[in-house]
Amino acid sequence: MKINKQQIENHNRNQLKSHKDSFGVFSDQLTAKKIDLDTVLYRLNQFQVAIPSWALGAGGTRFGRFHIGGEPGRLKEKIEDVGLLHALNRSSGAISLHIPWDIPDDPEAVKRQAEELDIRFDAVNSNTFQDQKNQKHSYKFGSLCHTDRIVREQAVDHNLDVIRYGKELGSKAITIWLADGSNFPGQQNFRKALMRTLGSLEKIYRELPDDWKMLIEYKPYEPNFYSMVIPDWGTSHLLASKLGAQAKTLVDLGHHLPNTNIEQIVATLMMEGKLGGFHFNDSKYGDDDLTTGCIKPYQLFLIFNELVYESDSDSTGFSGIDWMIDASHNSKDPLEDLLQSVEAILSAYAKALLVDQAKLEEAREVNDVTEAQELLLDAFRTDVRPLLRESRIRSQAAAEPLKLYRDLQVRNTLIDERGTSTVATGL
Amino acid sequence: MKINKQQIENHNRNQLKSHKDSFGVFSDQLTAKKIDLDTVLYRLNQFQVAIPSWALGAGGTRFGRFHIGGEPGRLKEKIEDVGLLHALNRSSGAISLHIPWDIPDDPEAVKRQAEELDIRFDAVNSNTFQDQKNQKHSYKFGSLCHTDRIVREQAVDHNLDVIRYGKELGSKAITIWLADGSNFPGQQNFRKALMRTLGSLEKIYRELPDDWKMLIEYKPYEPNFYSMVIPDWGTSHLLASKLGAQAKTLVDLGHHLPNTNIEQIVATLMMEGKLGGFHFNDSKYGDDDLTTGCIKPYQLFLIFNELVYESDSDSTGFSGIDWMIDASHNSKDPLEDLLQSVEAILSAYAKALLVDQAKLEEAREVNDVTEAQELLLDAFRTDVRPLLRESRIRSQAAAEPLKLYRDLQVRNTLIDERGTSTVATGL
Amino acid sequence: MKINKQQIENHNRNQLKSHKDSFGVFSDQLTAKKIDLDTVLYRLNQFQVAIPSWALGAGGTRFGRFHIGGEPGRLKEKIEDVGLLHALNRSSGAISLHIPWDIPDDPEAVKRQAEELDIRFDAVNSNTFQDQKNQKHSYKFGSLCHTDRIVREQAVDHNLDVIRYGKELGSKAITIWLADGSNFPGQQNFRKALMRTLGSLEKIYRELPDDWKMLIEYKPYEPNFYSMVIPDWGTSHLLASKLGAQAKTLVDLGHHLPNTNIEQIVATLMMEGKLGGFHFNDSKYGDDDLTTGCIKPYQLFLIFNELVYESDSDSTGFSGIDWMIDASHNSKDPLEDLLQSVEAILSAYAKALLVDQAKLEEAREVNDVTEAQELLLDAFRTDVRPLLRESRIRSQAAAEPLKLYRDLQVRNTLIDERGTSTVATGL
Amino acid sequence: MKINKQQIENHNRNQLKSHKDSFGVFSDQLTAKKIDLDTVLYRLNQFQVAIPSWALGAGGTRFGRFHIGGEPGRLKEKIEDVGLLHALNRSSGAISLHIPWDIPDDPEAVKRQAEELDIRFDAVNSNTFQDQKNQKHSYKFGSLCHTDRIVREQAVDHNLDVIRYGKELGSKAITIWLADGSNFPGQQNFRKALMRTLGSLEKIYRELPDDWKMLIEYKPYEPNFYSMVIPDWGTSHLLASKLGAQAKTLVDLGHHLPNTNIEQIVATLMMEGKLGGFHFNDSKYGDDDLTTGCIKPYQLFLIFNELVYESDSDSTGFSGIDWMIDASHNSKDPLEDLLQSVEAILSAYAKALLVDQAKLEEAREVNDVTEAQELLLDAFRTDVRPLLRESRIRSQAAAEPLKLYRDLQVRNTLIDERGTSTVATGL
Are the C-beta atoms of residues A293 and A300 closer than 8 Å to each other? Predict the structure, then answer.
């Protein structure tokens, strides 16, 4: 299924009247605050969040998975789904692939399809947390950290394959999330596991194209429940520092211990020039992989406030970061969920763009705590929906993507096209 | 496979010499502390922990499952496995079944097999967290709490079926763990969900045989990640109080928010006569379902200290509690894991039996904090392995169950018998 | 210091122009959604949050306290400070006193002063977590739960004194926060401590005037770090149920373990008719006592969504709840902090009033999760500042309380009046 | 008060008979496991834990402090108290001072007193988390990170003073714990705060004597409740790496977010040669500062298992670490509490020395998870009290330090000598 320009235009025409009123007031507010509307709109427009290929089907938990219909069974259909999202919001112009789930049979055809839909190939992801059919050695006890050299080599080779697939499609980064770790005290020699991991990463890094980044994820627990080889940003950063300038840390919002101040980690990594990418999602307990912004929207805003601060002072900092969603959809239509996530991300970004950074810095310098807090709250409390609508209308996206998605009955069409029994690869 | 008396006796003969020395010293220590050895041994001997049928195969996470060989594919084989454990330690003389995974085709044959192995049927467990093949209505949005009466009725009927199966086998309790909840703020009307759950439970309770208990589990999150209908002991207790005397709360050690004082919950529930059962496991982060005692052995001891306190003052309190393991085995041979769990449970229990409760009460009354703490530490620091060995030798179990399990190469035999590709039902 | 009508009017006149524009658009939005503006404004106007007498000076931590100037040294000055806040926002028309910190020497004079400032006396608070000078028995090892009857009686008597003081001033509730607990495993007999606490509470309850409530707080830790006698809502509710209809649970937002779903607890307690009161504050880690809404504004909104739901369906539910702030101000001017807190509370309440409860219920019934979530987000994303300004202007409060506070240089005036060395009683 | 040799000898004579029996069996067990008893005893004997001068009086919380009698009011008395502890267990031969609480008036006299009691001066601690009387600039908004250069310089100067005092007494390290941070989102520019801290630390580092270490503590929260400038090991390590070889990270067991795997952090830091020191205590919720080993004795053992592993493979690693207790005693006699802490630390160390590291490594290499876990459990379950007693008897300490402390009624003597109203400096 595709959404055509006419459908978008019809939809926007219906929204225009009420939009104009609210945007007028909003625009006046911006003028009053001496914020340049065009700059803000330009930056919003530039911002593209990659959709992970594994988030287009129903996600599950270890207790089971509840099916939805119309899941994309093949890579072609996955790209088609991202195309739908991008047509609706013009902010999802990238896809992040997972190997071996998404090995392209015909890379050229895949590239053509993506190009037509204006979709880029973002970071490619390797998978050494599951055993694939016909795989020689099991990752049950680790992959890049495994005690057995043979297993480590297999995992290294897999990562090199992933890079090769990525090169064919035009990706510029590989994301390595390691499930390696241990379930029981005593099971693993922490030091050796970390050194072996470093050794394996060095082998992959050596083959990294010069214009690529290696994004190293961290996670404190799950699927291992006593220790993970790369449990925190400190360990990821330690590895990235030893590897070289192309290795950076990737922050997944759900990969932290309770109460972690994530925005501070983001700031520290940016200060070191070592923030490489983001996995957006939200959570209340652990790696819950819920819709971005559904639990802690203020935290999301605070994170973007750090990102914007950096991008203001150093234009390269911001452009060097890969933005991806990483979520799992247990109870919602994944496409609706992704539209909501992108909206929440843009909303946080837009609000951060409204923060008066100069005044904020001034208040901080004299320790006017109340004023500093008020400046953030002022931006956060602003209703930026008129702004996001305006941005979308200008870029020929739908004013209200979710509304149009429902009006067009996209899911039903997908079910008609694909049936109810296809199961998308993923978790 | 079965382990015969001769194998046990041979094993014990080899352990006897070294055992006698260490037990001699241990026994002297007890005498010095005026603890009656026979009472302690009697109570240890009486203690039986039910093995859950779903913990006999390899467990998994949402990221995958790593196979082991020789998994029990049918109920008969599961009972056989529990028989192996019980033959080794004489402390696992019960099995807890899960419906529909363990529906007995021929109940009489099943009972005979269990009887031969000296195994009781403990609480039966219902399952409304997964959709079964050919199931009419989905539990995607809840079961006993569902907004749709039809779905609730289906879930109630399933629970009544479970009771029926349990009655046939001689169970005396049904354990209800509800995965019902919501993933997103707004999704669920908390009050209505709870009232609907109560209504459904009342229907089940009404059909409960007079000599049965209904055990109501609680859990703060997973598989739902915003709210669970029965998130904490307070809610479970609220429901159990409204239902009646046969309804009680079941405590699963892994079902708590970070830092919860579980032993205090146990004490409060016992004070109210509402502690119905236990699911043993251990965890560092969430419901990690690790081997009991592998992370927080002192907490396990403190819990048993509360249990023993109650059982001393009120003999019925203790006997009314169902003891079950509930774990998931991602990286170990499940049978080895279960042997370790039972050992850890008995170890905590044995240490709690050594606490000088009279002196402890005395110290507490005068707020001699140091002394009270020392009295617990004294018991905890005692090496009770000679005591557990003695208890096992006297009941014709293996002095060192895990050692004998390995010496006999049980897993290899099971693989020979069952092959490497059977997959046990479970998570 | 007092703020007079003229100062308010001048301030409001200056805000009027820009306010009218933004309120116009806001009001149109409400009309479009068929929400009755007058009802919303009426309910906002009715809402009064009590200011705790102990939050008017600089708060501290165990590591120290940093002084501010102009702290209120006497009860008269504390009431004066609340008068300032209430003059500014007309939403702080109540004060919550702490005995023995605030024993009124001349109750009649105190009442007159409060009446002039249009301030009510909300719940009175007892204090058995500190030893007062010349106190006979120490609370080092507990108060209402103490092993020694004599100490318990002293603590009961103190609570009866507090009720007596409260009656003189017109309070209608006593809040009991018990610091009782233990620091070390073994120290306390959980059951006896709870039973003794119940016994002490019964003695206090017996003397409770018929039109009073007893509010029972819970808290998982601090100042005791192993166990607290009333650690969670379940225990508070257990006690309140045993005591009778006038005993209810008080929810302090900071008194929960990490990741607790507080809005669900609120819903459950309201369902049982047992929610008695609220202590507002915010926190990232524990009982941080930060400005309300400064960390988790969405959670605050979700809590109010539960409160509004109940108040819609049962008018008595809402009116029976006592609203109080309980915060500690380590780095800000306490009065500014309290103005921010009240603003955040009203903001959350106002947004909750905008939720389309009928549509929400509809979406929930058919498990349209996306729609249910969107309905909450729609309300939360709305900028309600025009509404709050309008509400204030109508009730002759300052359109922008914090701005006027700063413009009038209130703190400097207080320092001139009171000096820089007075230390307010509190933590 | 002093404890003399005769008192120790009398005590030990009384314990000897029962000790000999239990030690005999223990010693046989060691022989059976081919562990060299003399090596173990030698290492235990070498191990000395520094006592913090601020832990000798009653600790408090922000809610209050409950007095004990006989607190040491002056430095001389504090050293005397440490002398008592060291006489009792011969494992507390060091004191860690806190400036300005412990400024020595007459360094030579202080050194003589310490020498007589066989007490070393361990790391000195600076204090920039409180304002001292007559201090020019306040640390309310930070010290080494402060926005104002003047305040930073004051804080740097204070640290240089601390080093000077330490040099006079023979200390070889300065511990810097920074309370710097922020309470509210927006308050602090994370990057600038960290860069300013680095700048200040560089100034201190430049003046560090060549044979000194700078120990940099980290802590996620308290006394600041939104962010801390050095919240985690990663940040501490980042600073220490930039500073140079003498700068290392100090691990305080209570300074972690819930569920942190501390033993893994210890391993990683040791791998990098950057573990500088330890603050021992225990906790259930946050920085509870409870007696070491009272909540999580197994975690303490696992930490020592990492330490021992390193010390086996690299003798310098172990000797380069400073061991200190850092606790706060709200409900116990501080001296009893410290005796318990040292006992728990030695117990964990002794058990770690019993781990068969060679077999453990072997099991790990082949991923025999059960066996690896069993090897740790075997050591942990061993009752090492006979070993600790033997070690003490050989070094002329008391076989049972706490028993002798109570038999000699030390606290009463201290109260007689010092009265009941002295208040020791500290928290």
Answer: yes
